[in-house]
Amino acid sequence: MSLARDGHLIARGVGVVRGGRTILSDVSLAARPGTLLVLVGPNGAGKSTLLGALAGRLRPNAGGVSLDGMPLAAWEPRALARRRAMLSQRVDLGFAFTAFEVALLGRSPHAPDRVRDEAIATAALRAAHAWELRHRRYTALSGGEQQRVQLARVLAQVWGGGSDGAWLLLDEPEAGLDIAHQHFILRRARACAALGMGVVAVLHDLNLAARYADEVAVMAHGALLRHGPPQEALETGLLSEIYGIPLGRAFGIGAA
């Protein structure tokens, strides 16, 4: 796949080594605005590491990542934060913020505007199905409830930025959620993509990837093995090989 430039989030030859162990090896991939790209693969494949590199939170040992043709390292931090937000697997907060205050934290990279910021935090909490939690202390929420509030925070961070090329990066966003909310959060991710945002998500559930992704990148042992539409990328022979179990036609997608 050729790597486009303008408006795209692009990894070129990304390599990451930690503690003498190669976590990513020569990974190149382009994520497009208006698309939900899902990264899948077994544990240790390097999915979350690649997502961290795409977010600019992790500097590769080799290669690099660019947005709009400019290396992430060259972006002014607040400007980059207004363009992309990342939902991590787990966010620990030691302060007794309310859920509404956590959502407001997403507005930190923007010029202060109390009325606008509170309106966006309100809309983000509603979009994340977390409005009813707004007065509750974040530390008293269940793991799934905290995940929904964190989704509101990252939505607030890039709210209204679809036409400007905003990016939402989600690391296992379905973790800790019941089935209904797993589907909800991925419908929300698709809705963000439909508004013009670029969305990259790490998922463990291959059925969710097959159902919601516009594109799937299959990874194993720190390498990118396949990238394309779900019906092409989620080929059962490849998946059976990398997961080490026969998967048959479990995803409603015929073997290529």
UniProtKB/TrEMBL annotation:
Pfam families: ABC_tran (PF00005). InterPro entries: AAA+_ATPase, ABC_transporter-like_ATP-bd, ABC_transporter-like_CS, P-loop_NTPase. Keywords: ATP-binding, Nucleotide-binding, Translocase, Transport. Residues 9-246 form the ABC transporter domain. PROSITE patterns: ABC_TRANSPORTER_1, ABC_TRANSPORTER_2. GO terms for molecular function: ATP binding; ATP hydrolysis activity. SUPFAM superfamilies: P-loop containing nucleoside triphosphate hydrolases. It comes from the Bacteria. Coiled coil: none annotated. Signal peptide: none annotated. Part of the ABC transporter complex HmuTUV involved in hemin import. Responsible for energy coupling to the transport system. This is ABC transporter domain-containing protein. The lineage of its organism: Bacteria, Pseudomonadati, Pseudomonadota, Gammaproteobacteria, Lysobacterales.
